[in-house]
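Because discrete structure vocabularies remain unfamiliar, we turn briefly to a single example record, giving the amino acid sequence and backbone structure tokens:
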Amino acid sequence: MKSLKNLREAIIRAHNRGKGQREIADFLGISPGTVNKAIKRFEETGSYEDRPGRGPKKTARSQENVQRALEMLQQDRSTKTNSTRKLAKKLGVGKDSARRILRMDLKRKRTSSAETSGHPTVPISIPSTTACGVFSKRKRARNPIRTLNL
């Protein structure tokens, strides 16, 4: 893909040499509308650079929101009030942005509810063999009764 900045520069150079908009568009393999916009922008601003303020704004993960999230987590450490969903609602950002604040900015790792509640966890194991035979690895999760080898 062509760089937009380099493309605009090529459009302006060709326009300054007297080439027509359709001729420039055909040569560069772009639409005439793109050529027209680039020429208009150059005539208005005198430059083919991007306008200031272009690009995504980093508002959700701002320092202010990171600091507010840290304060909220320090005030109440119980897991039910510190869910990502509730944090997002309090900050006024999306759940994914709140998750990024927790993981990237505050370096918090996800904990399961069993780890934080103090209740012991009991691992559940699925038997690999029976008196009748061996479960098939591929079909074990589907229906172990039908996969017995007799």
Residues 32-45 form the longest helix (14 residues). Residues 126-150 form one domain. The two ends are 60 Å apart (CA to CA).
